[in-house]
């Protein structure tokens, strides 16, 4: 009986525990954050140098699941692994991340905003499908 109780408590403890990083990661899953270069869509359209060439109006970071994110700094979307430690989110660079050879680190400012450490740009959580809302 004593052995059964110890086994039960041990299993309950192990199943009840989760990594605090996983809890923090769960806060990001399904969210997209944008860094806009222009305040409005019209400003973006007015800044286009040529009707046959379109410059990017924003950068985007989407958290797919507990391990994977997608980031677009220009017109290429990179699928990367990420980690969370405290209020820092680190996107791991790799051989296929041509636009960034070092990890990208964000600091959580609030539930709806992140600051990219390397350039202090603020990325805001997108509400809906339109980045201009």
TrEMBL record:
Protein name: Lipoprotein
